[in-house]
Write a structure and sequence with these properties.
The chain has about 1000 residues and is mainly beta. The chain contains twelve helices and 60 strands. A hairpin with a 4-residue loop joins strand 24 and strand 25. The protein is globular.
Length: about 1000
C-alpha cells in the first residue's frame, strides 16, 4: 500500500513558506530523498530508476526502486533546484521539477505511477509532492536562505535568525549567547560543514570559540536548530544542536558584494528622558562572495570574505556624566584617584572608557567535486580572527578605568574534507576528516600581551558604595590558551528490501589543550579609602606565581579523545506510523593526569589525579511519527543526550593542584593591617621589570616573593576531579502535533520535558557539616585538605517547555511566522564561569555545598515572537521588501542575598562561604525574583535599484534594531540584574542594558550577480 501523502494545498503552503519549517535535521552537511514508488494499483514499481539532478551543478544521482517499492538517496546538496526523473519500463514516466532541500532533510518523494496508455511522460511540480511540513520527530526549527537574506540581521550573525523561534533566546543584553529552552549556551553544539564551531574550551559565554560568529554570514546556505532530536547521529550537546551548511559554486558564475555603515549619529541619544552620551564611533562592514565552475559539471569553488571595523561601547560613567549607567562615584573622587596613581604610583590609570575600536575578519573557501554519479567530495577552509575589549568587573557597584580593560581575541583556522559515496542502491557512506586550531588572546591593556609581560598590577579601591579598579585585571596578568582538534567520522546507511533503513557509524574527536592562567602574578593591591591609597596603606596584597620562579610551570597541557559509535533502525511499523530506534555509545580515553598533591592524598584519602579516562554513556533513543489524517500528524520521542560540558572545568584540575605554585598575601608581614605602608623605606621590591619604576604595582614585596619561592606559602584552594565522576546527561521526552488548515495555516505545538542525570557541579571537599549556626546556616569544620571538586549532582532537575507556532504565506507577498513558548528550566549550579572558585562562589545559596535544584539563571518564562515580511513592487520591476521581527518576553530571574558584611557577621564557625554577596536568607530560594518584561521591534527595509547588467540585482537597505525605542525612548528598555543577584535593601537592583536598549540604525548596499 502506498503510504499516505499530504494534500496538494498543504504542500503548496509549505513550498511557499520561507522560514521556520521543522523537518528532522541532523548533524550533517547534506540532504537526502526517500520514498515509495508504486504502480496504479498500489503495487511496488520495482525496477523504476530514480534519477536526481542538481540543476545548478549538473550533479546526478540514481537509485533503483527495490522490491518493496522504496528508494533512498543520501549526500545531496542543500538547496536546489532539483529535477527528479522516474523512469519505468512498465508505467508512464514522471518528472518532478523545482524541488528544494533543507539542511539535513530527508525529503519524502512518494509517487503513484500511471498506466502508460500512450503517455510517455508526466510532469508535476514539487508542490504536488509530499508536504515538507510533515515528517519531523522532535522539536526544532529550520531557516532557509531567504530568511538569512531578508531578516533584520543587524549583527550579521546566526543569533539574528535563530531567535525567531520562541524557544531560543539570544542574550542581547550580554554576550549574545544562544540559550535554548532555558539552558546555558555552554551546552549547545554548533557545526559548520560538519566541523564543530562551538566553544570547545568554554571561555566564552556566547557559545562561539571566537569573539563573533567564526564564519562569513554570506557563506551560509541554511541553518537548522534541533532541541530534542532522537536520531542517534546527534551528539555533543544537551541543550540544542545548531547546524549550518555553506554555499557551493555552480556551473554559472554568481557572487555578491556588500557594505554597511553605522555610527553614534545613527544611534539613540536618550533613554527614559535621560540624555545619553555614548561617545563618538563609527562601524563599517564589507565583504564579497563568489561561486564559479573550475570544470563544468565537475569541480566548483565558492569563497566568502567579510570584515568588520567596529567599536566596543562602554555604558558607565560618574554621577552627572550622562552615561547610560551612572555609578555612585563623583568626578572629584575620580580625579583624586587618577592624580594619586600618576603622582605617587607613577602609573597612568587611563580614562573613563567610552569606545574602543575593534576588528573582525573572516574567510571561507569551499571546493566541490562531482567525481562521478556514485561519489561526491567537498573541502572547506575557514579562517577567522577578531577582537573585542571588555570589562572584567562590571557589577552595578563597580567601576573600571580604561587601564583595567582587556582585549579578548582569537584566531581560528579549520580544514574539513568529506566524501559521499553510493556503493549501490542499498549501501551509501559519508566519511569526514576535519582539523581545527585556535589561538586565544586575553591581554590586559596595561601590558604587552606576553605571558607575565604586564608592567603594573591591579589596584582595587573599596569606597562606601563603589569599588574602583585600575591597572592590569588580575585574571589577565598571566593568561594564554591554545587548542587544536582532529575529528574523524564514518557513517553508513544500508537499505533493506523490507523497507528498513539502518544507520551506523563511528566518530572520534581528539582535543589537545595548552592553557596557563595565574591570577595576581603582578600583584593585586586593595585599599579601603582614597586616603589609604594615597598613604600606601593596603587592606590586602595578593601575589600568585610558580614555586620554581618560572611561570610556565603553572601551565596545563593535556588532552583526550572522545569516541562515539551508534546504530539505528528507521522503518514504518504501519503505513501511518514511522519509527526510529537506536543506541548511541560515547566514551573517553586519555592518559594525561594532573600532578599528584601528596597533602591532598594524605588529607582526603584519595588522589587528585583522577581524569576522564574510561568515562562512558549508553544513550538509547526512540522517535515516532504518526499520520493522523491528510492534514494532521502527531509525533513524540524519548532519548538520552550528553555533551557541551566545557573543557575549561577539567583544565582547572590540571592547573590548580597547588604542587607547581600557589598564592600568598601580605597578612603575615603587616601589609594589610595598617602597620606598614607600601611606601616605607624598608620595603624591598622584587621582580621589577627592566626600566619600570621600583615600587608598588611594578614589583612584589620581597617577603611575599621569598615565601612563594620557598614552597611554604598558604595556597589558594586546589581543584580536582571526583574519582567517581560520571558523564553528565539529560533525558528528553517530547510530544508534538502539526496541523495544516484548509486556509493553509501551518500550526505546530510541542511539549518538551527533560530530566538531568549526573549534572556537573562544584563542591568543597575536606570539610564536614558539624551543626548549624544560631541563624540556621550549616556550620563546618575542616577534616581534610580543602579543594574545589568537579563532581556530579545527585539531584534530578526537571525542566519543561510548551511551545506553539503559526506560519502563513499569502499570495499577495505577505508572510507571518509567530509563536509563544512557556519555559521552566532548573539546575543545581549555573556553572557560569570558567573558574571553579567562581562557579562555586558566585551564585545564590544558603549552603555552598548544597545539592538543590532551583530555577536556571537562563530561564525566560514567557516568550512571544513574530517574524513578518511583505514584498511588493512600488517601482516597476524593482522589489521593495519589508521585514519585521518582534518579541515580548518576561525578564531573567535573580535573587536577593545578604550583603557580604552582613553575611560575615551572621555566619559563624569554619565555613567555605568565601567573600561574595551570595548568601540567601534562610528559607529563600535561588532565582525567586524576576526582572521586568522586555518588548521590542526590529525592522529592515530593502529597495532594489537598477543594476549594471541583466541578471544582476542591486539593493539599498535600512535596518533598525529596537525600532520601538526609536519611536519612544521609554520603550524597548531592557533591564537586568548583574550576575543574577542583588543585595537585600537594594531598591533598584536592575540596570539598563544600553547596547540592547538604545535603537541603532545601519544603512547598506548589496550587489548580486
Amino acid at each position: 500500500m502506498l503510504r499516505k501523502t499530504k494534500l496538494t494545498s498543504i504542500a503548496l503552503a509549505v513550498a511557499m513558506s520561507l522560514g521556520m519549517s521543522s523537518a528532522a535535521f541532523a548533524q550533517t552537511t547534506s540532504s537526502g530523498m526517500t520514498g515509495q514508488i508504486v504502480g496504479p494499483n498500489g503495487n511496488p514499481a520495482a525496477g523504476t530508476v530514480v534519477k536526481v539532478t542538481h540543476v545548478p551543478t549538473g550533479a546526478v544521482k540514481t537509485a533503483t526502486v527495490n522490491s518493496a517499492g522504496t528508494f533512498n538517496l543520501n549526500g545531496l546538496r542543500v538547496g536546489g533546484p532539483y529535477t527528479i526523473e522516474l523512469d519505468s519500463n512498465t508505467f508512464a514516466d514522471q518528472t518532478i521539477e523545482d524541488v528544494y532541500l533543507s539542511l539535513g532533510e530527508t525529503a519524502p518523494i512518494n509517487r503513484a505511477l500511471t498506466a502508460e496508455d500512450n503517455i510517455e511522460r508526466i510532469s508535476v511540480s514539487a508542490s504536488q509532492v509530499s508536504s515538507l511540513s510533515f515528517g519531523k520527530i522532535g522539536p526544532g526549527a529550520n531557516f532557509d536562505l531567504a530568511t538569512l537574506e531578508n531578516a533584520p540581521a543587524i549583527n550579521r550573525d546566526l543569533t539574528d535568525i535563530v531567535r525567531i523561534d520562541p524557544r531560543i533566546y539570544v542574550d542581547e543584553g550580554g554576550s549574545g549567547g544562544i540559550q535554548c529552552v532555558g539552558k546555558s549556551p555552554r551546552f549547545n553544539s554548533l557545526t559548520v560543514d560538519g566541523v564543530r564551531m562551538n566553544d570547545l574550551f568554554g571561555l566564552n559565554s556566547n557559545g562561539y570559540p571566537t569573539e563573533r560568529m567564526p564564519f562569513s554570514y554570506d557563506a551560509i546556505e541554511g541553518v537548522a536548530v534541533e532541541i530534542a532530536p532522537f536520531d542517534v547521529i546527534y551528539g555533543g550537546f544537551s541543550a540544542c544542536n545548531i547546524s549550518a551548511v555553506s554555499k557551493t559554486g555552480t556551473n554559472e558564475v554568481h557572487g555578491s558584494a556588500f557594505y554597511d555603515y553605522g555610527s553614534n549619529d545613527l544611534r539613540g541619544d536618550s533613554l527614559e528622558g535621560d540624555d545619553i552620551n555614548i561617545g563618538d564611533y563609527t562601524e563599517k562592514r564589507y565583504g564579497f562572495s563568489v561561486g564559479a565552475p573550475l570544470i563544468k559539471d565537475k569541480l566548483f569553488i565558492f569563497a566568502a570574505y567579510e570584515k568588520l571595523e567596529g567599536a566596543n561601547i562602554f555604558d558607565r560613567g560618574v554621577a552627572g556624566s550622562g552615561a547610560i549607567n551612572e555609578v555612585a562615584l563623583t568626578q572629584t573622587q575620580l580625579d583624586e584617584i587618577i592624580r594619586i596613581s600618576n603622582d605617587l604610583y607613577q602609573f597612568d590609570p587611563g580614562t573613563v572608557p567610552s569606545s574602543l575600536a575593534n576588528e573582525d575578519e573572516k574567510l571561507l573557501v569551499k571546493l566541490d567535486w562531482n567525481i562521478n554519479e556514485q561519489h561526491r567530495a567537498s573541502f572547506t577552509y575557514n579562517w577567522n580572527d577578531g577582537n573585542n575589549f571588555a570589562e572584567s568587573d562590571g557589577d552595578s557597584d563597580e567601576f573600571e578605568l580604561s587601564s583595567h580593560l582587556y582585549e579578548r581575541g582569537a584566531e581560528l583556522t579549520s580544514y574539513s574534507g568529506v566524501l559521499y559515496s553510493d556503493w549501490n542502491d542499498k549501501f551509501s557512506t559519508e566519511v569526514r576528516l576535519s582539523y581545527t586550531e585556535l589561538d586565544n588572546r586575553q591581554n590586559s591593556l596595561t601590558g604587552d600581551g606576553s605571558v607575565g609581560g604586564n608592567d603594573f598590577g591591579e589596584v582595587k579601591l573599596f569606597l562606601d558604595d563603589m569599588t574602583v579598579f585600575l591597572g592590569s585585571d588580575d585574571s589577565r596578568q598571566v593568561n594564554d590558551l591554545n587548542w587544536d582538534a582532529l575529528s574523524m567520522m564514518f557513517r553508513g546507511n544500508y537499505y533493506l528490501d523490507n523497507g528498513h533503513s539502518l544507520t551506523f557509524g563511528y566518530e572520534s574527536d581528539d582535543l589537545e589543550i595548552y592553557n596557563i592562567f595565574v591570577q595576581h602574578a603582578e600583584t593585586s593591591l586593595s585599599f579601603d579609602s582614597i586616603a589609604d591609597f594615597e598613604n600606601g596603606i593596603a587592606s590586602d596584597v595578593e601575589y600568585g606565581h610558580a614555586y620554581s620562579g618560572d611561570i610556565n610551570d603553572r601551565a596545563a597541557e593535556w588532552g583526550y579523545t572522545s569516541h562515539s559509535t551508534y546504530i539505528q533502525d528507521d522503518f514504518y511499523l504501519t503505513d501511518d506510523l514511522k519509527v526510529i530506534a537506536g543506541l548511541r555509545y560515547d566514551w573517553i580515553t586519555t592518559s594525561d593526569k594532573p600532578v599528584e598533591n601528596a597533602d591532598f592524598l594524605a588529607g582526603n584519602g584519595y588522589s587528585n589525579t583522577a581524569n576522564l579516562d574510561g568515562i562512558s554513556l549508553l544513550q538509547p533513543r526512540i522517535g515516532l511519527n504518526y499520520t493522523l489524517s491528510d492534514s494532521t500528524e502527531i509525533r513524540g520521542g524519548v532519548g538520552l543526550f550528553s555533551g557541551g560540558n566545557p573543557n575549561v572545568w577539567m583544565t582547572n584540575n590540571y592547573q590548580n593542584t597547588n604542587v607547581t605554585g600557589g598564592e600568598v598575601d601580605g597578612g603575615d608581614f603587616g601589609y594589610d593591617d595598617g602597620s606598614r605602608s607600601l611606601f616605607d623605606d624598608d620595603v624591598v621590591w622584587a621582580n621589577v621589570e627592566d626600566g619600570a619604576p621600583v615600587g608598588p604595582g611594578y614589583g612584589v614585596p620581597s617577603e611575599l616573593d621569598d615565601l612563594l619561592d620557598s614552597g611554604a606559602a598558604g595556597n589558594f584552594e586546589s581543584n580536582n576531579l571526583d574519582p567517581d565522576f560520571k558523564m553528565p546527561s539529560e533525558w528528553k521526552v517530547s510530544a508534538g502535533i502539526t496541523h495544516v488548515t484548509d486556509s493553509d495555516f501551518i500550526l505546530n505545538a510541542d511539549l518538551l520535558v527533560s530530566f538531568t542525570q549526573d549534572q556537573a557541579m562544584i563542591k568543597y571537599v575536606g570539610i564536614d557539616e558539624v551543626g548549624f549556626t544560631d541563624e540556621g546556616y550549616v556550620d563546618y569544620e575542616s577534616n581534610g585538605y580543602g579543594s574545589l571538586e568537579l563532581t556530579n549532582s545527585d539531584e534530578v532537575s526537571t525542566s519543561y517547555s510548551l511551545t506553539g507556532t503559526l506560519e502563513k504565506t499569502w499570495d499577495n507577498g505577505l508572510r507571518l511566522v509567530t509563536g509563544y513558548s512557556y519555559n521552566h528550566a532548573e539546575d543545581v549550579q549555573p556553572m557560569t564561569s570558567s573558574v571553579a572558585f567562581s562557579n562555586y562562589q558566585y551564585r545564590a545559596f544558603t549552603n555552598p555545598n548544597e545539592d538543590v535544584s532551583s530555577l536556571s539563571d537562563w530561564n525566560i518564562e514567557h516568550r512571544f515572537t513574530a517574524d513578518f515580511s511583505y514584498a511588493i513592487e512600488l517601482f516597476a520591476g524593482l522589489e521593495t521588501r519589508f521585514n519585521m521581527y518582534a518579541l515580548a518576553q518576561s525578564g531573567r530571574p535573580y535573587s536577593f542575598t545578604l550583603s557580604q558584611d552582613v553575611a560575615n557577621n551572621e555566619i559563624f564557625g569554619y565555613t567555605p562561604y568565601l567573600d561574595s554577596n551570595s548568601v540567601l536568607p534562610i528559607g529563600a530560594e535561588r532565582n525567586d525574583q524576576e526582572s521586568d518584561w522586555w518588548t521590542k521591534v526590529d525592522i529592515a527595509v530593502r529597495q532594489e535599484i537598477p543594476a549594471f547588467a541583466d541578471g544582476h540585482t542591486a539593493t539599498v537597505s535600512l535596518t533598525i534594531d529596537n525600532f520601538t525605542n526609536m519611536i519612544n525612548d521609554d520603550w524597548g528598555i531592557l533591564e537586568e540584574v548583574s550576575f543574577n543577584t542583588a543585595t537585600i535593601g537594594n531598591t533598584s537592583p536592575q540596570s539598563r542594558q544600553g547596547d540592547a536598549s538604545l535603537w541603532e540604525m545601519r544603512i547598506g548596499v548589496n550587489y548580486r550577480f
